[in-house]
Fold this sequence. Notes:
The protein has one domain: Rieske [2Fe-2S] iron-sulphur domain (Rieske Iron-sulfur Protein), CATH 2.102.10. It is 0% helix and 36% strand. The protein has no helices and 9 strands.
Amino acid sequence: MRKRGDPLPGTALCALDEIDEPGAKGLASGEGTSRLDIFLIRKDGAVYAYLNRCPHAATRLDNWPDRFLTQDETQILCGNHAALFRIEDGFCTSGPCAGKSLEAVPVEVKDGMVRIAA
Ligand code: FES
């Protein structure tokens, strides 16, 4: 459900070719109290997006810019306490928040741009 301050559908996040395949990219949408920190994962032709907030301690997942994936690029890694999440749905399979999920952000790719979906 859309909350007050969420980016409007159609809001451009970045160009698709700014994300490695496979790879990840962190970015912010909005400013001030409306700012949302988001990260995008591109894998096997799909793009997934989640809030950059670990369900364990509500901190960012990345300790280094754009570093959201395990070395083998098969899972999302929280750099703080090493929780692992499935790329496809953000479900935590291992770590202090096992059984919880990242908050998904609906996105779509249109005309080479990743945008907030309706
Ligand atoms: S803050 Fe992410 S696993 Fe602890």
